[in-house]
Specification:
The chain has 697 residues and is α+β, with helices and mostly antiparallel strands. The chain contains 27 helices and 9 strands.
Length: 697
């Protein structure tokens, strides 16, 4: 998933212990390509840099307002686009590192920043004089001879002001500002609690008998985790590379239940309780939507997306969910039947049983296990293969650099060159978990592409993942699922790398939320293409190519549990919409509301006290509020889009060039539906996805 930075949410306490000359944010970077000076950045630099950046940005806004000349596109709209360069620069680093390499001091700084950055946002969005200049340009837009990009920038700015409260009364503007600040702090606290709750749990095992069923690589990793924590024996955490294999392989049911429960009750109670914070966030979003003239927050959020309305989204989810339920229930029934035949004594499968028994059933049905595949997917080989795919499709090349500063020793940096040898981007890759990094995987950028005064700035793109680290006995080996994740995030990265345009707010991944996942999800398809897998998958010890029968099994098992997986993903979208189509807070508590909502489409038995709303970072702190459906929406797009590659050839450069030209390089310079039709020639249909997943009769 991509993570775009919204400066509007945070703010600043005025503390400064170093001069501008000493602050790496306030001096020109001496690093190659003008890259961030991570080797010089210290926590004490952030607050003074934000202070200076806000002051500079306000002065630039004031200069636009004070301009006595008639408002024009250049002196108003374009001037606003280029304002706040210092502020954007420090914010893009600080908030990205808050997720990738945070610490207690940074979290405290974030809390101090939040109110003042919100105040700055309001300084701009509720500035009546500034809005009058924007409005004046907007009203004569058809007379100005603007090109397509200029017109889009103007329209986006005008809509942004209206959607940001510019037409509100002074009294309502004050309320809007107050609620926006409170919302910013609440989402920040939500995120902080999720990370803390995740890090607070450790399953500590001292009896080797409790490791029954676990592969050697899992045990080795757990032993190293324990050693890092100063513990004897083995330690398992709620980080995905530790948590997921334990659920998948452990034959000790009670311990599976324990760690599953810990994960699925994160932040539901205790010191890091998010239950009330969820309600606060939802309540504030309702209030903000209402004061802006919308019935629900979903109405507000969806207005600028491809779907346009909550009715469209709810209909989309329903149209996929209801026919998928039959397949999902069959998936669960098949796994349960297999489990009963092979020693399971319970009356039903519980959530902590499903991963374990579905893995065994997959092995029985397809003779395929994640453990069997891992030796063929050494991380270094996969890096070369992912880069090589981009080279084959687009002609670009990657060269690892050792002279560009990084924010953690695990991070690798590559220069990306275009087919003609010109510099395209810097690419940062951060692969391994640590306590200072949130779970999951995402793409972001430290600088986007733009052109100012005829000078182009190429982007600094980053992908962050949580793959299993190398051990004393083996290099970093990833699962086939993790390879798919890598390709997904790399698709987002390509979207950022290929950005081409004048205005940074319209380039790269600055597209509607339900379009942004198309470039990422289409890349996942190559993980299931034999021709691609044959090109790099070799045993890390013997160098032997992956056997043809294993590739056949990967392809055959591609849609294993497709119904279950589809319903699970749609559950997230359904719950997201349930929270964000409320007109008032529900009578039930957070956990109870979630369970009531999901009870309409049950697949697995509900577990009392379990909920994922309290750790649902995508919608409560990550920019996907009323937008989680986007993943499935984009799957429909990519199923249709990839069918063209299947028709013409999976390495067909004519198709890939068109995809780059019409999708990847265009950013948000046009409506997403127009960009898609320019590439594919028609609108997609949900049936394309159902057929791809085999969910048809």
């Amino acid at each position: 998933m991509t993570k775009k930075l919204l400066i509007a949410g945070a703010a600043l306490a005025l503390i400064s212990s170093c001069s501008n000359m000493e602050n790496p944010f306030l001096t020109e970077s001496s690093a190659p390509f003008g890259a961030p000076q991570f080797d010089k950045i210290r926590n004490e630099h952030y607050l003074p840099a934000f202070e200076a950046g806000i002051a500079e940005a306000k002065a630039e806004i004031d200069a636009i307002v004070a301009n006595q000349e008639e408002p024009t596109f250049e002196n108003t709209i374009e001037a606003m686009e280029y304002a706040g360069e210092t502020l954007n620069g420090v914010a893009s680093i600080f908030y990205n590192l808050m997720e990738a390499n945070t610490n207690d001091e940074m979290q405290q700084i974030a809390e101090q920043l939040s109110p003042m950055l919100t105040e700055y946002e309001m300084y701009v969005s509720l500035n009546a004089d500034l809005f009058e200049r924007v409005k004046a340009v907007y009203e004569k837009r058809n007379e100005l001879g603007l090109d397509k990009d200029q017109l889009k920038l103007l329209e986006d700015n005008y809509k942004g002001f209206v959607r940001g409260g510019a037409n509100l009364s002074d009294e309502d503007k004050a309320l809007y500002s107050k609620w926006s600040e409170e919302l910013s702090l609440a989402t920040l606290q939500f995120s902080k609690n999720v990370l803390a709750a995740t890090n607070a749990y450790t399953l500590h095992i001292t009896d080797e008998a409790d490791l029954a069923g676990l592969p050697e690589f899992v045990k080795t990793m757990a032993a190293e985790t324990a050693a890092d924590k100063g513990l004897e024996g083995w330690a398992f955490t709620l980080d995905a590379p530790s948590y997921s294999p334990f659920l998948k392989y452990s034959s000790v049911r009670e311990l599976r239940k324990e760690i599953w429960t810990a994960y699925n009750t994160r932040a539901t109670s205790g010191e890091f309780d998010n239950t009330q914070i969820v309600r606060n966030i939802v309540d504030l979003r309702i209030k903000i939507a209402n004061i802006l003239g919308y019935e629900t927050y979903a109405d507000y959020a969806l207005e600028e997306r491809m779907a346009k309305s909550k009715d469209t989204v709810n209909g989309f989810i329903k149209d996929l969910l209801e026919p998928s339920m039959e397949f999902a229930k069959k998936d669960v029934a098949d796994v349960f039947a297999y489990a009963k035949k092979n020693g399971f004594e319970g009356s039903q499968l519980e959530s902590w049983d499903f991963s374990y028994w579905s893995e065994k059933y997959q092995q029985a049905e397809y003779s395929l296990s994640a453990e069997e595949l891992k030796p063929y997917f050494q991380l270094e080989s996969c890096i070369d293969a992912v880069f090589g795919l981009a080279t084959r499709l687009y002609g670009i090349s990657f060269t690892e650099l050792d002279n560009v500063p990084v924010y953690h020793e695990d991070v690798k940096v590559y220069e990306v060159k275009d087919a003609d040898g010109s510099h395209l981007a810097l690419f940062y890759a951060d692969f391994f978990p640590r306590a200072s990094k949130r779970g999951g995987a995402w793409m972001t950028e430290f600088r986007g592409q733009s052109i100012k005064d005829g000078v182009e700035r190429r982007p600094f793109i980053s992908t962050v993942m949580n793959f299993t680290k190398p051990t004393a006995d083996a290099p970093a080996l990833i699962t086939h699922d993790e390879l798919t994740t890598f390709l997904h995030e790399f698709g987002h990265a390509l979207h950022g790398m290929f950005a081409q345009g004048r205005y940074g707010s319209l380039t790269g991944t600055n597209v509607s939320r339900d379009f942004v996942e198309l470039p990422s999800q289409i890349m996942e398809n190559w993980a299931f293409e034999p021709e691609y897998l044959n090109s790099f998958a070799k045993h890390y010890q013997t160098g032997e190519p992956i056997p043809a029968e294993l590739i056949e099994k990967i392809v055959a098992a591609k849609n294993y549990l497709a119904g279950y997986a589809q319903v699970r993903q749609l559950h997230y979208g359904y719950l997201d919409m349930a929270w964000h189509t409320l007109t008032e807070l529900p009578a039930e508590g957070t956990v109870e509301f979630e369970q009531k909502v999901l009870s309409k489409y049950p697949v697995m038995p509900a577990v009392e006290g379990a909920a994922f709303s309290t750790s649902f970072s995508h919608i409560f702190s990550g920019g996907y509020s009323a937008g989680y459906y986007s993943y499935k929406w984009a799957e429909v797009l990519e199923a249709d889009a990839f069918s063209l590659f299947k028709e013409k050839g999976i390495f067909n450069t004519e198709v890939s060039s068109s995809f780059r030209e019409n999708i990847l390089s265009k950013g948000g310079t046009d409506e997403a539906s127009v960009l898609y039709r320019n590439f594919r020639g028609h609108d997609p249909e949900p049936q394309a996805l159902m057929e791809k997943l085999g969910l048809v009769k």
